[in-house]
Amino acid sequence: MIIEPRVRGFICTTAHPVGCATNVREQIAYVLKQGPVADCPKRVAVLGCSTGYGLASRIVATFAGGADTIGVSLEREPSEKRSASAGWYNNRAFEIEAEKIGRSPLTLEGDAFSDEMKKDFIERVREKFGQLDLLVYSMAAPVRTDPDTGKTYRSVIKPLGAPVEIKTLDTETGEVFQTTLEPANEDQTAATVAVMGGDDWKRWIDQLADAGVLAPGFRTLNYTYIGSELTWPIYWNGTLGRAKVDLDSKAEAIRVRLGPDAARVVALKAVVTQASSAIPVVPLYGTVLFKVMKQLGLHEGCIEQIDRLFRTRLGKGVELDDAQRIRVDDWELSPEVQTEVSRRWPLLTTETLGELADLGEYKSQFLRLFGFGIDGVDYTKDVDPRVVPG
Ligand SMILES: NC(=O)c1ccc[n+]([C@@H]2O[C@H](COP(=O)([O-])OP(=O)(O)OC[C@H]3O[C@@H](n4cnc5c(N)ncnc54)[C@H](O)[C@@H]3O)[C@@H](O)[C@H]2O)c1
Questions:
Q1: What domains does the chain contain, in order, with CATH numbers?
Q2: Which ipTM score applies to this complex?
């Protein structure tokens, strides 16, 4: 069948197997070009391994770090008539490429929030690795069922306290407009913390530690976004920020149990992923940020950020911020970038968007997440949606 993008709001319901595989291979090629990462942990787990920052982490650990990996993600399988999720194609393409260099990666597809998945994972780690040296937690999900209570929580992306009036962008039409976002109530805030906070991370680490599958010197990383004051009203000072603050306290709890370097929250830059495109204001901020960072020669996507994390931020004595986090968002938050983004922000209108921001780049990065718009891929060719080319 011919697979075309079908975009509904901030998701694309189709994905292209050849495009996704090409995307994965391009990321691998980038990492190989940078050369090996010294002292990379060798038995690595990535939760949320199939797209965005998790996929980049798995690629860097494998292709620059020489690691064997186990990944977990939630996917839609393909059928004869329907394409799979992009993550399903990415997982298969990753496995094909990792096997070519003599690795035998393991991928578990299902709900990482469930205790069944954790049990299965522990068994597979025992069989395959014995113990783990590093676990990267890179999950972004809208809903979580708490295994203890059976209660299902849905996250909301809202401000706290009072309504926020803020500029935003319709990425389909290119219209820039003011919008008022109503604040979350207490239940919604608590639900967002239950989904995107550190509860599940800590639960994973506790169960793995109890099962004795964490190697001496084991470390775990969890990714966060802090951003600049332009996005704070909706992100850091909103429900998502509350959830991210919870990561810091769970990191501390893990350090208390496993040692002073065992857990770190890592602040990363804004990039286009399935998760970030759903956040109001972030796409508008992104279109300006990408243009400014490109103009200053500081552009980074997921793979460049994670490559820099593994190469420069995981060694002994790395600088931490006041909340004991590792920072790789330093270029995004540098005065030269933020001064220029802030200068452009009040000038942004539907009419000036083309000059001050780069919507075309944003849209093309969004479509690339699903394997569309990639050079060298013939989208007019019939493909079997169940097959990822080797
Ligand atoms: N995108 C950004 O701009 C940005 C910036 C800084 C930090 N981060 C953080 O990075 C982390 C990853 O985000 P991303 O943007 O790469 O997201 P993403 O949407 O690209 O990836 C999310 C991953 O989680 C998996 N997942 C979702 N629900 C799951 C479930 N129930 N069980 C198993 N797997 C599940 C998906 O399959 C996918 O692999 C998040 O913590 C996010 O806050 C993102």
A1: 7-368 (3.40.50.720)
A2: 0.99
